[in-house]
Design a protein that fits this description.
The chain is 51% helix and 0% strand. The protein contains two helices and no strands. It has helices at residues 3-61, 79-86.
């Protein structure tokens, strides 16, 4: 290897190492700024979560107003009808019977390639149809 080739290779390696050093410096700078930005975002979210937790604790300690009492109803209007339909005054549960409708069956015959071909002419059996 002559001196000029060695010099060119040495200069190429030096240039590559300088460019690598610059790239590494930029990468660490970007990582540090991203870390600062993410820590501020985490602090903001933590503050929002703290305020939400305080609101939840307040809601837990406050009770809604009491519901009004239900009015008393003497008897349901359907009681005489149920007694008439049920066939007795036993007061038992009404029996409901559901009758299913008959199923509708639709049959469609689809013609396939092997239905009704041209080989049904003589009724089968082989031979030429002549007897000896």
């Amino acid at each position: 290897m002559n001196r000029t080739t060695a010099l060119v290779v040495a200069l190429a390696l030096a240039g590559a190492s300088v460019l690598g050093l610059i790239a590494a410096t930029k990468t660490t700078t970007l990582g540090a700024s991203a870390h600062r930005a993410s820590s501020t975002a985490i602090a903001q979210r933590a503050h929002k979560l703290d305020s939400f937790e305080i609101a939840l604790k307040k809601a837990l300690h406050s009770h809604p107003p009491a519901l009004p009492k239900m009015p008393k109803v003497a008897a349901p209007a359907s009681a005489p009808i149920a007694a008439a339909v049920g066939g007795g005054g036993g007061g038992g549960a009404q029996r409901i019977v559901y009758h299913h409708a008959a199923p509708i069956v639709v049959v469609k015959h689809l013609h396939h390639g092997d239905d009704g071909g041209g080989e049904h002419g003589d009724g089968g059996g082989g031979g030429g149809g002549e007897s000896d």
